[in-house]
Each structure stands twice: as structure tokens, then as C-alpha cells.
Write a structure and sequence with these properties.
The chain is an alpha/beta fold. It has 11 helices and 11 strands. The longest helix has 23 residues.
Amino acid sequence: MVRTCSPAAPLIDGCARGAALTLAIVACAFAVSVAGADLRIIAPNAVKEIVSDAAARYQSTSASATVFTWSGSEAIAKRVEEGEVFDVVLNTPQNLDMLAKAGKIVPGTRVDFAKSGIGIAVRAGQSRPDISNEEALRKALLQAKSIGLSSGPSGRYMAKVFQRLGIADQVQGKIRQPPSGAQIAELLSRGEVELGFQQISELQHAAGVEYLGPLPAGLQSYTIWSGGVHSATNEAAAARIFLNALVSSDSATAIRKAGMDPM
């Protein structure tokens, strides 16, 4: 949005008129600066649908635009810890709390907005293995020639699932785990892995894959997604408004659509 300032009314005193004009120019420049300030947000790919929806609603009532950087949760934590500054940082509660202790996130600004489970997918057109219960999933894992896992929370958790199913040693050599932020759906669609595990929101609408469903209930684990205000931001008020949009009732529909649950 571009704001314009009306010229000051003529003043009889030339000196006063000059001072008033100077103040008007400064005020106008400040207003344009505030109006044009972008809200910089770094967020995990897993919450892209939800955050984009909140951004559209935020921008409809705000003079500033939102500028996104998408990555994986671990990569985000590393970038912020090493000094990159964003106005809003979205990540897991554990990573945000760690960043708060490091002085990168304003204490008390963390809000939890969604929780997501782990989903399973195969390449489009591939036969769909049964993953409806623990034994069926165990069989599918043993039969798969390759398995794709994220480097984020879901990938770390799946290592525990393999242990629980008693097949950790058998599947170890099949695992493909790309860097933080990589999409398992892309590995599936290119045929680089046969069976993929990642956050449901990153698989269920992805092109080139067939989403099989969530992990069996007895094995499922949920990741909570949160946001906080960066301690070095110059847009703290706008950042808080955006975070409020993420936890509003309007966001609940988008959260459920993405296969998650509102907090």
C-alpha cells in the first residue's frame, strides 16, 4: 500500500511555514516507511498452507506485505541461531525455546498454533501397500527397497518406530534421508525411494505421489508447530498481529484442511 501526505496549509510566517513543511516531509517519509515495511517470516515447509492462508488475511488488513523464507525446522533453527534475522520465526516449541534461551526469540511471545501427525506415501501409480496396522506397516517396510525420511521431527521419530517394530537393523541400509527442508514427495515422484514418511501436510496434496494415510494410531506421534517474535526485529507489533492471525478461529479451517489439528 502507498500512503500519500497532503501538503501543509499555507502559513503567514515564512519561518514557521518552512518548519511545518519540513515536519510534514519527515512525517510523510516515516508513514511511507512504516507502510512499506515487509514482515519477514521464516517457516517450515510443513506449515506452508496454514501460514500462507494467515498471511492473506493479515495482508488484507495491514499496510505491510509478508515475505517468506521456507525451509526445514532444523535448518531454520540453525540459521536463526547463527545470526539471520526475521521478524517472525516458526518452528517446533523445542527449537523456539532453545532460540529464546540463546537470546534470539523474545521470551513469552511463543504461540502454539497447530499439531500434525506423520503420513505415508508412495509414488503415483505404484502399488499401494497395506499400512493399516503395525504388522502391515512392518511388512511394507521390510518389502520396500528404499525408504525416505525427513531430517526433521518425523524422521527422528521414525527411527524409534523401526526399533519398536524390531526391524531397525533390516531397514537401516534402505533409508534415504536428505538435508533439512527437502521434500520426501519429490524423492518419491522421481523414483528415488519407494516408501516415504513425512508430515501429513507435506504429502497429502503433493504432486506425483499417492498419499496412503497416517501412521497407525498406536505408532502415531504429533509435532506441534509454534511461532515467536525475533528479538532483533523492528516490526515487533506487526509480528504479534501475524501470530494472532495464526491462532484465530479463521485459521482453524486452514489447519484442518492441511491435515492438522488446531491448538
